[in-house]
From TrEMBL, chain A:
The keyword Manganese does not apply. Residues 102-148 form the SKP1 component dimerisation domain. GO terms for cellular component: cytoplasm; nucleus. Pathway: Protein modification; protein ubiquitination. Residues 1-59 form the SKP1 component POZ domain. This is SKP1-like protein. Part of a SCF (SKP1-cullin-F-box) protein ligase complex. It comes from Capsicum annuum.
TrEMBL record, chain B:
Residues 37-50 have a biased composition (Low complexity). Residues 119-157 form the F-box domain. It comes from the Eukaryota. Residues 185-353, 361-448 form the At1g61320/AtMIF1 LRR domain. PANTHER family: FBD DOMAIN-CONTAINING PROTEIN, OS02G0105600 PROTEIN. Residues 60-72 have a biased composition (Acidic residues). Transmembrane segments: none annotated. This is F-box domain-containing protein. Residues 1-72 are annotated as: Disordered. Pfam families: F-box, LRR_At1g61320_AtMIF1. InterPro entries: At1g61320/At1g61330-like (IPR053772), F-box-like_dom_sf (IPR036047), F-box_dom (IPR001810), LRR_At1g61320_AtMIF1 (IPR055357), LRR_dom_sf (IPR032675).
Length: 159, 451
């Protein structure tokens, strides 16, 4: 078992087989730097719980392929990313910090799926993005790459 | 189940939350942790199978979670703790930092209110990672969101143009512009994907490939739609500049006629780790050049190829771990001989769509081979016996439609899984395989399932 400590001082015990999906922690263990508690100053306990939930579920990824549990895993992944933007960004930052490749892919894919086909207006509203471009600058960008702004398939809804 | 709980939390009676709020000293979350612990929800949801163990902080005070401390050996207890903590934490955030959000309604809305353009504050590589999953057109469109996004688009090292036909007339302009700006800013390109429709009469330009090479491109996925015309496949012509991509790790080509550079016929793809070719025309010269140049190749996939009568890999690719060959159906298939010497090869799959011409398969030098899949390959009883005599590490063996096989004799210490399907002339199977776990034999004449 490996002990992880979140930035709000909560400790979690995780099986080594699960936690080594994090390249960062795997390296620490290999270098013998993981003898006591591993502090994770960038991750709060709420996010860490999410990450551990993912690691535990994906512990036997290789086996899942053999035993036909892939669908189960896929369903889990779909449910897993069903979270608000804020939480998603927390998990992305954690996955990036811990270097968990599959989790990073899953979450970034989910973020991209939510942006796909959306109009700029919709994305701006959805993510509360402040536009710091002047009208001229904006027009210049559009004029430079008109191909990006053509086509009918733009979704203007904020969902 | 987690979601249900979260819903309960976020839809919680505003009255109750406000009442609790009164007991909270603002800006001191620790006090809150104590107060929130008496949540009536505690202890009701303990039926998951996750293994999170939660060690309560000693300063945390006495809260509802103490109930589970003494039974930490059971599977359920840790989950109970996890759940409770989740509820507690959510409520804590709601009350202390944004009490007004109680009125924002359930689910995502409430947590997103704190978002305040957090996405734009993500480190650029992460923003790039997110944008990498979008079609280049969609990613480019995001550049009008704000300055951060404009810069993220202009430096985006992943460009997926997908299938191009609707803006074909501008293709050159789009490519020149998009790639030129990356070259100018010295962006190290990670991935470039483009798929040209045959009907748009477009072709790849050497110029684009040269720019990408100058940007140290790592992964290239190029595709043209092949076209069947009067009994022949029509292939796209491959920009020869590609063979000079020294930093390239992954190359996928679909629909091309693969010809070596006319000048010296050599290729320089020394960093290549994966090569995926499908619906291509190629010859033995290319395979030879590949074996000489691609010394770091790990994965080779060759599907629905034309023009090769023999596939030969000498001992020059020590890192090769996986080969996947899928032959075209006759009369387009010409392949007759497969001869592979690759000491670290673990997985080999040779597959004919229909019973084909492959009648010589030499793989006994691939000593590390673990998984072998043969479909419609002309192998004999003796061949099989010899194979297991030479390849001691074989663990998984699939034989599909190998019609020449009559008596199957296998002696192997390591073999774990054996599958024999539709080998219609098979009359006897003799196995000396002490570690076989799964044996699946499905033929017209007899069926055996073991393990």
């Amino acid at each position: 078992m490996v002990k992880l400590k979140s930035n709000d001082d909560k400790e979690f015990e995780v099986e080594e087989a699960a936690v080594i999906q994090s390249e960062m922690i795997k390296n620490m263990i290999e270098d013998g730097c993981a003898t006591s508690v591993i502090p994770l100053p960038n991750i709060d306990s709420k996010t860490l719980i999410k990450v551990i939930e993912y690691l535990n579920k994906h512990i036997n990824m290789g086996k899942a392929a053999e035993t036909g549990e892939e669908d189960d895993l896929k369903e889990f992944d779909e449910q897993f990313v069903n979270m608000g933007w804020e939480e998603l960004f927390d998990v992305i930052m954690a996955a990036n910090y811990l270097n968990i490749h599959e989790l990073m892919e899953l979450c970034c894919q989910s973020a991209a799926d939510r942006l796909k086909n959306k109009s700029v207006r919709a994305v701006r509203e959805m993510l509360k993005i402040t536009n710091d471009l002047t009208e001229e600058e904006e027009q210049e960008i559009i004029n430079d790459a008109p191909w990006a702004f053509e086509g009918p398939e733009i979704d203007d809804t904020v969902n | 189940m987690d979601i249900e709980i979260e819903q309960i939390t976020s839809q919680e009676n505003p009255q109750k939350l406000q009442n609790n709020n009164k007991a909270i000293t603002k800006g001191n979350p620790h006090t809150v942790a104590g107060t929130t612990s008496e949540s009536p929800d505690s202890g009701n949801n303990n039926s998951s199978n996750s293994d999170v163990t939660f060690h309560k902080d000693q300063n945390d005070g006495d809260d509802g979670m103490d109930d589970c401390d003494d039974v930490s050996d059971t599977m359920r207890t840790p989950i109970l703790r996890k759940r409770l903590w989740k509820i507690k934490k959510t409520m804590l955030e709601v009350r202390v930092f944004k009490p007004q959000r109680i009125n924002l309604g359930p689910m995502e809305g409430s947590s997103d209110a704190t978002c305040g353009d957090r996405i734009s504050k993500l480190p650029e590589p992460i923003l790039h990672h997110i944008l990498s999953f979008l079609h280049a057109k969609h990613a480019a469109r995001m550049s009008t969101l704000s300055k951060v996004w404009d810069s993220a688009w202009n430096s985006l090292p992943y460009l997926d143009f997908g299938e191009i036909f609707w803006w074909s007339k501008d293709l050159n302009v789009v490519m020149d512009q998009t790639l030129a700006s990356r070259k100018k800013h010295k962006i190290s390109m990670q991935r470039f994907s483009l798929w040209l429709s045959y009907y748009a009469c477009l072709s790849y330009d050497d110029r684009w490939i040269k720019i990408l090479i100058a940007c140290n491109i790592k992964e290239l996925n190029l595709r043209v739609e092949t076209h069947y015309y009067r009994g022949n496949f029509l292939y796209g012509s491959l920009p020869v500049a590609i063979f000079a991509a020294k930093s390239l790790n992954v190359l996928s080509l679909h629909g091309f006629n693969i010809e070596l550079p006319a000048d010296d016929g050599t290729i320089n793809l020394s960093s290549l780790r994966e090569l995926h070719l499908s619906f291509v025309f190629l010859d033995e010269q290319f395979i030879k050049a590949m074996c000489t140049s691609c010394c770091n190749l790990e994965h080779l996939s060759l599907q629905y190829f034309n023009g090769l009568t023999s596939f030969q890999v000498g001992g020059t690719l020590p890192k090769l771990k996986m080969i996947n060959l899928v032959n075209l159906e006759p009369p387009d298939s010409l392949l007759q001989l497969v001869d592979i010497v690759a000491i670290n090869l673990k997985n080999l799959s040779i597959s004919n769509k229909f019973y084909g011409n492959i009648n010589v398969v030499r793989i006994t030098a691939c000593k590390a081979l673990k998984n072998l899949y043969l479909n419609c390959v002309d192998i004999t009883d003796n061949w099989l016996e010899e194979l297991f005599y030479s390849l001691k590490n074989l663990e998984k063996f699939d034989l599909i439609c190998c019609k020449a096989l009559k008596i199957m004799k296998i002696t192997s210490e390591r073999l774990k899984q054996l599958r024999v399907v539709d080998c219609h002339n098979l009359i006897a199977v003799e196995l000396d395989t002490p570690n076989l776990i799964k044996f699946h034999c499905f033929n017209e004449k007899f069926k055996v399932f073991l393990g």
